[in-house]
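Lesson 9: reading folded outputs for more than one chain in a single document. The general rule is that every protein is listed as its sequence immediately followed by its structure tokens, and records are never interleaved. Here is the first one.
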Amino acid sequence: MAKNPGAKPRIGLLGTGPWAGRTHAPALARHPGIEFSGVWGRRPEAAAALAAASGTRAYDDVDALFAASDAVALALPPDVQAPLAVRAAEAGCHVLLDKPVATTVAGAREVADAVEAAGVASVVFCTLRFAEPTARWIEDQAAKDGWFLGEAHWLGSLYGTGSSSAYAASPWRREKGGLWDVGPHVLSVYLPVLGDVTAITAVPGQGDTHHLVLRHTSGASSTATLTLSAPPEAAEAALTLYGTGGRAELPRWDGAVDAFGAAVDALVTAARTGRPHPCDARFGLRLTEILTQAETEAARGAEERI
């Protein structure tokens, strides 16, 4: 993976917000198999502070960070992330993307096409696919046949009464809501187990809530209720599968730092072997296509009821 054979892969970080500071930077700083090559952010003072706290250096010029890195991790709003990921790939850097890759199909496709044209590796960080207990569970369920139904609800309380979450200040989350923020998590479980989505029904609920009914290539169906506006007392994330073997519930997981470290390992492996990871940029594009269709269906249903 490294541009200098024999050296540790150098991975830089784009982004300085709460997600970068709490997950990406700590995981990169403590990862024994890589060199944390630096931090770039849209606010230079924030980049300098995060770099100092992480034992690396800050870059004012993102292209300079690309030149000093073999790969970059991105912790940015999706539609800021996408064009920078294209630039990183064109500079020869492997890319560790956040979900969603972009909130437009065109933006996500540009990333996937750039990655393929440059011949670099890509991984989209869907937490459940990399957190140890959930990743193992997904692999086990995907190996089984006979699933006919999935039921999921992700009731985040980011905008619930009394919430003090640092993520509530995120403009893109405020605009796009739970469909785009937590929807990728649910889809990242359903797709490898039940197959790609072939049909979608979506209706809006209270606040940013969306209710989805999905049909999959396996013939199974699934449902998902997604929101960031649940009362804190009702906040919960759960997913259950039903089939000929009974029912299986997604296990609990703790934290994202270790999961992000596993995503770093996945990117390094994909870059070294040349074998695409299942959660690559093309998978990220598919998530954006599904969420875009769901958003369109929900908006159409809302208009018809007016």
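And here is the second record, again sequence then tokens.
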Amino acid sequence: MTRWLVTGAGGMLGRDLTAVLDAVPGATVTALTRAGLDITDGPAVDAAVAGHDIVVNTAAWTDVDGAESDEAAATRVNGEGVRRLAGACARHGVPLLQLSTDYVFAGDADRPYREDSPTGPLGAYGRGKLAGELAVRELLPERGFVVRTAWLYGEHGRNFVTTVLGLAERRETLEVVNDQVGQPTWSRTLALRLAALGDAALSGRAAPGIYHGTASGHVTWFGLARAVFELSGLDPERVRPTTSGRFPRPARRPAYSVLGHEGWAKAGLGPLPRWREDLAVALPALRAARVS
């Protein structure tokens, strides 16, 4: 029997991961939401980790713009909270799978970022998440796994794909930025990969370090919106391109968020599926979730 602890279990990825692990033979899951565990509370974190074989941390401050106005609060969760989790995992001798982000990079590359590419966050959110990564690597050199993801969408939370589906019902045309490039990633596919990576970590088949948990291929937000329309049987010409300058935000977004996937070979796993193939499979469930 493998005892899993999932923190942040009330979020989009946390809910998918809990469902995936519940279906794994021999796995038992402790799923703790934010109300069940504040990862900035050291004694509570230590008590929660005790008795488990592996921990997956999906808890995070995810308000990218809000981090710009309260960096200390964001880093308390994304940096200091992760350090407390990593310390508890080190004391109890269990692996930690820590979710991170493309925002640790500057987004000015012209080819996919490797797992070992130099980091350079543009803003407060990225700096906090990078602090969490560094804590895992420092405190868990033999049992720490950092999984960077980006452009997540799924059934259980607000995200770009479900926003587009809603706007398609209310507006005749949509303007969507065409100067940011990334990898739309279905949260359920990432959850399946986290379960596989955790199993590989426990069996000694996966090397500790950094992995990039994003879909294969890449597209702009504009291209993604058009794909949502096409795969939903709607006219993609209703989606019009525009630039990021038309929609200023407190936090700068990376213009290029394409991550390379060479690291999966260390765990005997291949890259995640291509983004458009996954989107086609995911859309019926996302549409059903919107009307349920």
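What the second record shows: Residues 2-158+184-215+258-271 form a domain with the Rossmann fold fold (CATH 3.40.50.720).
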